[in-house]
Amino acid sequence: MAELTKELSHVPQEESQAPTPPQELGTPTVIVDNLHIVYKVYGAASDAQKGNAANALMRIVRRQGRPQMKEVHAVKGVSFVARHGEAIGIVGRNGSGKSTLLRAIAGLLPPHKGAVYTDGQPSLLGVNAALMKELTGERNIVLGCYAMGMSPSELQEKYDEIVDFSGIGEFVQFPMSTYSSGMGARLRFAISSAKTHDVLLIDEALATGDREFKKRSQQRIKEMRESAGTVFLVAHNLDVIEDTCSRVIWLHKGKIKMDGDPTKVLAAYNKA
Amino acid sequence: MSQPDSAVADAQAGGGAPESLAALAERHGLRRAIARPTLPAYLRQLWTRRHFILTYATSRNVSKYSESALGQLWQVLTPLLNAAVYWLMFGVILGQSKNIPNYPAFLITGVMVFTFTQRTVTGGAKSISSNLSLIRALHFPRASLPLAYAVQELQQLAWSMGVLILLVLAMGMPITWLWLLIPVSLVLQLVFNMGVSLFMARVGAFVRDMNQLLPFITRTWLYASGVFYSITERTGKLPDALRWVLEFNPAAAYIEFMRDLLIYQRFPERWAWITCVFWAVFALIVGFWYFWRAEERYGRG
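^ Those are the sequences you sent over. The predicted structure of the assembly is below.
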């Protein structure tokens, strides 16, 4: 298996080097240099350590740290160069560090070691965290757009488009807590895709809503990919990656296992 | 295994000769994704996010009471009930009201002014640690969050002030030109609150036990700030150094300033002006600088 991946991973490089002279490669937009991400997780204690007050006191007396706090080494030394015009799919099992890598590229998680160099501001497609479910759709559109950094004039320009695209109609006047999960997902996607980006990072955003909306959202992503310089896409749906990406990175336990042409990487990934 | 090769290959393809990724990045003018902006740049970013700060504050206020039957009425009821409880305790049971004229107005002014600062500090300390998902999802100057919490409390205070002014009028106190200074007092206090909120946001983001400890600190502060009693009366017998410390307490200063305007109808003394302006400027500069120094580290948990 290891031999196979090694062999396969060399093929795309040969291809990319032989037919295209170096100057025709796009300029680099994102460079990830030996990146390590470590983050702390609270409240992840085993049953034996889980504490009453006496245990907690003993730990302070013995000068031990909180056992509920664990460090997770999610990305372990990843390096690659992304260029203008590339659409890069990131595949890997659950917990392989895909989402963490995206957040690090977006500059939202500080590197433990190494660095991410970018041109402009990469943005993650997703405003979910900024929205409040007690508020009406209208208010959430305003809040979400401002959270993404739009100006009032941009908001005015995009507002109707967002409502139309989400297709929630008069529900826009009701609190989001009254929405069905599909409606909520549609509104969130409509808000977060309203802004144009230089470097766009998409994390599993495709499988939202019903079939009709899925088609529309894929179309929207295609448009965004054309207007953005570089797109990163994390998805479990490999068909989507095969359709939209020009390069695939396979992450395994925080390291790059393979990087190259979609058909070859995905073939190897499916066998693993 | 294949990863270092591919990285080097990419670098070679870009440059012809082997070069480090850092050098490649520099050649193409790429910058580190996480780098703390300079202070002026940070201020500019913050200014462009002013709409977000305001909308976020308003949205939090609206959503806060949306579950309760009386809804936004609680914005007024909460400070009123607070004042009623304190009036019962200190005015009726402990009998403070005999020594102080207009005790209800005296007390409610103190409670409302102090609550404004106390809630901003408590909210600010949580503003980073309870919004980690937002910080990990979107890019914005992190100081927007503690500032939004300060603005949120200002919006709440606007309601309380309305109640307070009605009460003062109902007790037969006249409207004087001194009332024009009420906004000045509130702005000074808001600036002070913003500074403390920024400072506490960084502390609360990295020292998680702060949120457990803070109620005790603010309660001690409450008792030391002359909300229920007249601070100048009590400090008269104390040694000068201690008296100076108690009267230099920012919360006490803002409370006394507001009482001068509303109840005693006198222009605040020079000492009061100095204290209030000093604390506003000092807190904002120190708080902002301290918060900005850790800008790139928020969000790691």
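The longest strand of chain A covers residues 28-41. The radius of gyration of chain A is 21 Å.

Shout if you want it in another format.
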